[in-house]
Design a protein that fits this description.
It contains 14 helices and 20 strands. The mean pLDDT is 94.
Length: 391
């Protein structure tokens, strides 16, 4: 099977592991990944990334000239894409720029003009209802009408596409898997000593952006509610709430229980997760964000959950977006924004080591069965085979 995947996500080599695994699943699978030649992610990576060609025997990364260097929806590719499509002649064209992506429209049209007869697939994370105006509404309608299959990163996204009239095949699957060789149970006594963490400490952990929608103020209040219990809070990340978190912790006499680790490279995140007795994802739905086509945000997946599960660290999550589906019965779930309910979840784990162990084991089994790069790749291949066989 010849599979062409296009998307700016894969300018980061670490993000390509699922596709590398896909290329190795069976003999005869060829995966070519089209990425923009130049991309400016913004945020902490506020620089232009120039991508490089790679050829790894069945797996290729091919930089293609591009228009728009920092807008997902407006990304399109140059004329060198035509030569690649003519030479490779993919059976699957999979574009990861959402239902309204111009790059997907471009691929659909080239698929028709070049007579490739490939199956058109796109990936989307979007999980809130939206209304579109012309001409964007026509663009999405064209893309949906010419899609043979869709992969949605979450259940809500799949339901929204159904509501918008799509009747074809949909698979719910995360965009990226977890690297189980990196995220694996691994005690970190030296790091613990460096951070002032002792063997009897119960470490409540968070990994992510310090912003309101990630629910950190709810997490802090939940811990303030149970000051009588033995816990420490380890926050991994950075963001606008940094100073406010310190201020609240100081005012409530818990600053000495708070450790903040900023700018930790991704390959070291697993070491910090392995210090935790539980990882908490407290995301909260908000309607303050606005884009050209939609309003709002709720948790689209929560990748850090599966990273913790792979380390046998039990997880607690709010009921925002996809979090309850990711956790299932492998952790504890509380209503978003409810600090008292979160306090109760934390107390259960602090007081019950057997529950900590049980949830850690359940999460590990679920991560290994469903969320490793190889596991995600297998599910993706099965979906492609379904599309090809349903002529």
């Amino acid at each position: 099977m010849r599979i062409l995947v296009a998307g700016h996500t894969y300018i980061v080599d670490l993000n390509c592991e699922k596709l590398r695994a896909l290329a190795k699943l069976e003999p005869g699978i060829e995966v070519t990944v089209v990425v923009p030649k130049k991309w400016k992610p913004g945020g902490v990576q506020n620089r232009i990334i120039e991508t490089e060609y790679r050829d790894e025997d069945g797996f290729k990364i091919v930089p293609i000239s591009n228009f728009s260097q920092n807008h997902q929806g407006l990304l399109t590719f140059g004329a060198d894409l035509i030569g690649l499509l003519q030479k490779f002649r993919p059976q699957i064209i999979h574009v990861e720029q959402g239902s309204r992506g111009l790059a997907y429209t471009q691929m659909i049209i080239l698929n028709q003009l070049l007579g490739l007869k490939a199956k058109n697939v796109f990936f989307t994370w979007w999980n809130l209802p939206y209304e579109l105006k012309l001409p964007i509404a026509l663009l999405e309608k064209f893309n949906l009408n010419h899609s043979h299959g869709i992969i949605s990163g979450n259940q809500d996204g799949a339901e929204i596409l159904r509501q918008r009239g799509y009747k074809g095949a949909i698979k719910v699957l995360p965009q990226l898997g977890v690297d189980e060789t990196l995220f694996t149970p691994n005690p970190q006594p030296e790091l613990a000593t460096t951070l002032g963490i002792f063997q009897d400490d119960f470490i409540v952990g968070f990994v992510g952006r310090f912003v309101l929608e990630k629910g950190l103020l709810t997490l802090l209040q939940a811990l303030i509610n149970i000051q009588d219990k033995s816990w420490k809070l380890l926050l991994l990340g950075r963001g606008d709430l940094h100073d406010e978190l310190l201020k609240i912790a100081t005012e409530n006499g818990i600053k000495d229980r708070l450790t903040i680790a900023e700018s930790v490279p991704h390959h070291e995140v697993a070491n910090y997760i392995n210090l935790m007795n539980t990882l908490v994802l407290t995301s909260e739905t908000t309607y303050k964000f606005k884009t050209l086509t939609a309003i709002g945000w709720k948790e689209q997946f929560g990748h850090v959950l599966i990273e913790a599960m792979a380390c046998k660290v039990p997880v607690i999550g709010s009921n925002s977006g996809e979090i309850p589906h990711v956790i299932g019965d492998a952790g504890l779930i509380f209503p978003e924004g409810d600090d008292q309910a979160l306090s109760n979840c934390l107390s259960q784990l602090i007081e019950n080591p057997d529950l900590v162990h049980d949830l850690g084991q359940r999460g590990y089994r679920k991560a290994m069965a469903n969320y490793t790069n190889k596991a995600v790749a297998k599910q993706q291949l099965e979906f492609y085979e379904q599309l090809i066989n349903n002529n």
